[in-house]
Amino acid sequence: MAIVRFENISKHFGNVVAVDSVTYETEDGEFLTLLGPSGCGKTTTLRMVAGFYYPTHGRLFFDDKDVTYVVPEARNTGMVFQNYALFPHMTVFENIAYGLQARRMQKAVIQKKVADAMELVQMTGYERRKVHELSGGQQQRVALARAVVIQPDILLLDEPLSNLDAKLRKTTSEELRRLQKQLGITTIYVTHDQEEAFSVSDRVIVMNAGAVHQIDTPVNTFNSPKDVFVAEFLGHSNLFPGKIVETDGESIIVETEALAGRVRAAKTRQRPEWKWHVGETVHVMIHTNQLKISSEPKPENTTTGILRFKMFNGLNWNLEFQVGDGTCRAIVPNEFTSDYADLSIGDELTLCYPYEEVYLIKGKESSRDAS
Ligand SMILES: Nc1ncnc2c1ncn2[C@@H]1O[C@H](COP(=O)(O)OP(=O)(O)OP(=O)(O)O)[C@@H](O)[C@H]1O
Ligand SMILES: [Mg+2]
Description:
binds adenosine-5'-triphosphate; alpha+beta; elongated; about 375 residues
């Protein structure tokens, strides 16, 4: 168990800045996930924690120990690499047992630990198989077993479930979360998949182009993104640029051409550290599940939309509308009594969004000032 602390860490590869002056720390025993688009520096970050890369600038600490230039063997980290990196000439058993043998454990102890790890990843019975005789998903599970079997202080997982089918992915991520909490191993996890990130993590870091945009709990990340990048990356929301035209004790009113009108937002819905000023540029965010179709127009937070696209997926209808000078998307639950199936492209509908659900994102400069 350990706290991992990044102090102003950068990693350059020639002209490429893979990680750009990041400062943050994990909590002890935390499950922390790096989420971000391809090339944003997730693998590079994990490799620096494992010791396979040394930072170009900055310092890395495990608890109070400066490990910036400590060799990988002396760090007690367990890592699952994005491409598994199993030993191809060894069997499954030998791969998982490797780290234990290097620690000179007794044979019986090794047998037991390997058997437990194999059971954990549902690979019991495959001990004698060679790595090249396994599917991608099976290799991934062996890599996971190999990383946890040594009981590392820090577990580093680089997309460890990406090759599993949906069902196995779900059960393995639940198992992983349970095991991580049971053993209390500080874990840094990398994934592209936000649903997976939200379901396993204590906190999520959203990264882009080497920089950290937000570190927060899954719920706060989704509900209250700190900037437009985070909101766009997470999706499931409509974003409209606008300008604050009025504020009072309870609400903020934004004029937005994209919605052809005024939007009222509750102050209690906003990030508490942000202050609002008339004339300021903001983005209005409305989650796709908060946009409702209404039979009668409400006095506020209502707009007219022309249906441009509709798709049924069982539980929901995905609808896209042209509104003002923009477009917006709505996900509305399928109900037996609703008549969305009868809607035609080109139909004009009234769309409403509740005042308590309207979230405002400050412009870039203001958000930096405020944080
Ligand atoms: N060894 C290297 N030499 C040169 N450039 C590198 C090297 N490793 C990574 N990069 C570059 O650094 C940036 C970050 O790469 P990294 O592998 O950390 O991204 P990632 O977030 O893990 O992406 P992905 O989701 O695709 O795995 C990219 O622009 C990549 O091209
Ligand atoms: Mg990567």
